[in-house]
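Hi V.,

You were right to ask for the full record rather than a summary. Here it is.
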Amino acid sequence: DRTSDYKFGAASFVGMYGDEALDLVKELHRARWLPAYREEVIKRVAKEIEILVNMIEKSLEAQNFEVSEAQIACGLIVHWQSVLYNKRCILAYLNHRVNLVKQLWWDQGGVLPNEIRQNLSSNELQFFDEYGRLMRIYQNVMDVDINLDQEPPTSLFIEVRVLRPCGTIQTDCGPITLNEHSTHLVRRRDVELLIRQGALEQIS
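Predicted structure:
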């Protein structure tokens, strides 16, 4: 009968509940930055949730929504808690990635390096672009560059070393050519974004 089918189904799935969802969270914890988006794993977890919900619904229908057997009740609780566990893991995974994507905008000034771009999903790329658009609107309305002075400066001028060629930039004191390994005394606000992008390093 349908009740025995449910019991067999419950036994056949034991040991797999939440494993892949937990692996996603562990991967984020181990990663130094932002690992590649795992779309196929997300789909498999969503399928697992769908299977669990269907099993719960079939069991309740077979019992006319009045569960009296302890074995059935325990199975329902295990399956429902597994659904919630999977959802929490997936939401934690997606929320953490969204927060990192927002931080990327502040760190990279709205320009994503290719090695980072390829790790984002299409939805994350769209979010990054839209987040940047809203930030630019805010900057235009308020007439302020919110990417500057993210940390309180200790002095107006700093000495920097060029880690990779950046060409010529325009500063308040005139143009400066940033050749690799050269050092310059510049206003912090003129090069702060390049420092965050890893093109320059502050040496004083």
